[in-house]
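Hey L., structure's done. Input below.
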Amino acid sequence: MLRIFFIIIAFFMLTGAVIGGLYFWGVDPLSKLGLVINKAPDVKGSFRTPEHSYVDFGLLAVPLILDREVKAQAELIVRLDVVFEKKEMVAVNLPRLQAAYLEDMIGYLPSSFRNNGGRPISVADLDVIAIRRRLQAVSDRVLGPGAVKAVEIEHTGLR
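Output:
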């Protein structure tokens, strides 16, 4: 009885190996035998581009240099809402965009903290709307207008 059980198991394993091998070599044995139940419908003309396509920029760490010393470090987690057709182009040019963002923010952020009245720098002092607008302007300058629809800042922090 045990021998018959092992023979049946070996038969199923051999059958699976043959079918898997045929699939590997590009032959579909089930369709050749007519055992395919249903096929997926062709959807050639019905593909719709998504409304939002995002490129994760990641962390933008900007040192806040005041009075010739680093007082703090602003950390921004940035995500770019891009045109679907230009997503690959934006992803390829991400290093250029990172350098341009960092250059602009190193010049802008310390000047926005100079007039804080001598109190310690806090996250509440970051003007997220102004930062988003500046990053959008830098994106348009580096990649051309219309490539990046919106710059989203998901998180801000200071160290």
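DSSP finds five helices and three strands in the chain. Helices lie at 2-24, 29-32, 87-92, 94-113, 128-143.

-- N.
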